Amino acid sequence: MSTEHTHHDHSPITAPENPPSYYEIMETAIRELLLEKKLIGAGEIRRQIELLDSRTPAVGAKIVARAWLDSDFRKRLLADGTSACEEMGITFYDSTQLIVVENTDTVHNLLVCTLCSCYPRPVLGLPPDWYKLKPYRSRAVKEPRALLAEFGTIIPENVEIHVSDSTAMVRYLVLPQRPRGTDNFNEEQLAALVTRDSMIGVVRANQPSNGEPQ
Amino acid sequence: MMHSQDNLTRLPNDIGGAESEHFERVDRALEPWEKRCHALADVLDYHKIINTEEKRRGTEALGSELIAELSYYERWVAAFANILFTKGILVPSELAIKMSEVEARFAAERTS
To answer: What ipTM score was computed for the predicted complex, to two decimals?
Structure first.
């Protein structure tokens, strides 16, 4: 984060410029004590970081694009999100159950975790900060229409808004509506229209005009 | 302003529908230690040492004052320490000694 690189010639890899915080020291100390007690294995943290880094909204976008193209897959996905994703080779490393909720002409879905920050991490990666903070969590269940408007998403009064509140064990993913004008798009081109926020339900999938089909 | 009766009926994490400040679409990349903290949480879950719900309750048990003061991953790491003490996996003195060692090592690395 620091922009100062001129005052020392120390290697930035091994010598961070700012002293670590109390909590960073505590994190390191806990990790090392658990390793010494052989309660966790050497390399497990590094491998988990690699796994976390491999899960991005691109995973979810691929699921959505496939559901738009393959109606049998879509049915399986809506019936059992976890097993449909597993058939695509996506593992649920956190042992959570995935429920996929579909946007239609009459229903718009929005995801939240009012108690903390539960999020479909295996298919979207880690949540954005705003998802974890009080304004989103408190308002999503009370005034979702007004909150969505702040994202620029205007939901007509005749469309119901369904808010799904995630838990430690049950996570949700929004299947957005397929944009018009994408009849001849392949899976990759469709996936490029599917943003993280559209799978949380705060916006719609991008239109082809601003979604840069490639 | 939270009144005492609100604190009785709602735990600090239970904020669905609560009065809230203005929404802002804030986001930032995690710092390396924050990502390590997240990975540690997952690994603790794999080994059935601390599961997700225990972690959530552990942060809530810090109380509303600390919750307000600490950042997201600071709350997690404080909760881990308390839960590990409660389960008898760590004792406070050994964590304090290890933290002193780690702090000294980090300081030595910065000046070497």
So the answer is: 0.90
